[in-house]
Amino acid sequence: MRRIFHAVLVSLCLLGNCSLLYAADGEVDFLDDAFYEEAPEENAVRDPFEGINRVVFTFNDYAFIWVLNPLANGYSKLLPSDIRGAIANVFYNLQEPMRFINSLLQVRFSDAGTLLTRFTVNTIGGVGGLGDPASELGFEKTEATFCQTLDNWGVPDGIFLMVPVMGPTTLRDISGRVVDRFSLSPIYYNWAAGWEESVGIYMGKEVNNLSLHLGEYEAMKKMSFDPYIAVRDGFYQLRRQRWQNSMSSSDAVVEPLE
Amino acid sequence: MQIFRRVLVVLLFLTLLPLTQQVSAATPDPTEQLKPVVDKVVSLLKDAEFRKKPVVEQSDVIVKIVAERFDFREMSKRVMGKQWRTLNPEQKDQFVALFTKLLQYVYINQVDGYLDKKIEFTDQRIRRDRAEVKTLLVGADKRIPVSYIMLLEKDNWMAYDIVVEGVSLIRNYMEQISTVLRDEKFPGLIKMLENKITKLEAGEKEE
Prior knowledge:
The complex is a heterodimer.
Chain A lengths: L1 H14 L18 H4 L12 H29 L2 H14 L1 H10 L3 H16 L8 H4 L9 H7 L7 E4 L3 E4 H14 L10 H17 L4 H8 L3 H22 L10
Antiparallel strand pairs in A: 1-2
Helix pairs in contact in A: 3-10, 4-10, 5-6, 8-9
Chain B lengths: L1 H24 L4 H17 L1 H5 L2 H12 L5 H9 L8 H26 L3 E10 L2 E9 L4 E11 L2 E9 L2 E2 H34 L5
Antiparallel strand pairs in B: 1-2, 2-3, 3-4, 4-5
Helix pairs in contact in B: 4-6, 5-6, 5-7, 6-7
């Protein structure tokens, strides 16, 4: 097992010999001109499969317009937003143990404490995570994924990928997501009798999430003249922002290995 | 001689230091300057009579109000990045005009989604001649943070970027523009902008 893990790490490093343009290590300050001056073409995002990625993007676009969006639209009319919010909370709560483990791996001990408290409080007090009483008690949500753990350990981002249905990601992030997914299997996917149901649960989660963010993708598409690039850049910017927020609340930040 | 020069520099610095502090003490408040403009635009766009006018007319009125607090030239300059210096004056003007137009239509289009939301001015921070004014769009079931990044020009704070949920609009356009410039050079970019603007002017929905 360990050897496989090593092999994966090494191959990630080899494939992903790239600039960490948007990684969590460079802090963003919008008042700083450096943020605008890093010329995109110089330390460009590594996107050697841009051609294929664009094809997948077009596919996703159609899937979104003709399948996912109508589904989420109908769904949002079926259920009021507070119930959809509660469903999202349940899914979020189920992932809390994985966040706890990742925060330990990232040496963010006070965040680990917060996450453990959140899981306990919300599972018991929030009836299996339907509500989020922990936030009201001051234990705010904090993100800790295996993607961040890998970043923390110095694994570079690798190439940019556009994955069918799932959308934008990088080689490192998709590996991280797979690890997170499998580490959840004992509590999460044992419910499902087979892969069909797993897919069902996944789609249910995605449609539910989408129903809470209706119209955002269209708005973004409308304002950009190259939506593919807009989505790609939006992905990196959002991720940097999110990680920065979760890292700034941590008590110890490990220097990435060079 | 060198020592003399160094002393002179230090002296000059010391005399200027209190001056800069005085200047910063007298700087106007960015939120106070921005808020009336944003409020005016939102109230206009909520006005049903005004919304009946053609999009082109709406945009002409709005750009006059917005130009008071938004520096479109600075935006265009930043969005071009290093390429800005390679353009000749006519190209610069052409690009500024088109990009300004694009931003207007984008703004009007976006506001549709904001009409049921309230804008709260939550916070601001100032560093030298830069400021970030933080606002929150409060809707029925979500809250979207929107920041205005501003530059002090004489006595006026002028916005040159809008950051929505941590995503910088200018940075996002910068990435798109550099890709178009790489593949199709400046004429291609102008054509692309013109196409997008015609589409937005017609108010047509894509697909």
